[in-house]
Amino acid sequence: MKRTLIAAGLALAVNAAWAKDIVDTALAAGQFNTLASALKAAGLVETLKGPGPFTVFAPTDQAFAAIPKAELDALLKDKAKLTAVLTYHVVPGKLMAKDVKPGAVKTVQGSSLNVKAEAGKVMVDNATVIKTDIAADNGVIHVIDRVVLPK
Predict the structure, then answer these.
(1) What are 124-147's pLDDT values in tens digits?
(2) Domain 20-144 belongs to what topology?
């Protein structure tokens, strides 16, 4: 009995050491470096490292690269606007792909994303979801192919 408890305690300690939050999971994926930089500039890293849970519709580096450089630079320097854009990509709670229904989904920013399925694709506003259900210990990431802007 004592060995079982010790083994269980060690297993929990190892799992806790390997658990990754939304930010660490995104960084480990290697395709969200611009998003990570933007989260840091907006002061949102600690929030997304918090308990959550969060659902993040995460634009890739390629999605950010589609924004003209001058516009992206201006956005990164305007903390209030950057925060609004980034929190528009975050939905409270952990919504796995099977749980997301077409229609309006309220974001942390306050506006709603429009989710729809058409021609075998899931769209979030004008972005296509290209990968779903990347699990983190405080939520889930769904990868999108463009940056979406609040209305």
Answers:
(1) 999 999 999 999 999 999 999 999
(2) FAS1 domain (2.30.180)
